[in-house]
Amino acid sequence: MHSHDLISLVQKYAPAVRRSEATVSNWIVGNARLFQRLRDGHGTTIRTYNKVLQWFSDHWPEDLDWPSDIPRPRKSKKKEQFQ
Hints:
Elements: H1 3-16, H2 21-29, H3 34-39, H4 46-59
Helix pairs in contact: 1-2, 1-4
């Protein structure tokens, strides 16, 4: 688990979707300061790390290359819609 992985992902993702890192952080964890806190040397729990990593994998734009040095989890299965 490496905080710099999450920072690398947001650095690629945020400009690609034309949103700030704070907005992306708020979407993922409901807190706009996650990535700034990681840059400031604060850690995160394994649960939060995995949640953020999975969120990026599930929402990653098709036309944006995933960083080759970060293992990408499989996309989550879509929940079946009620009919």
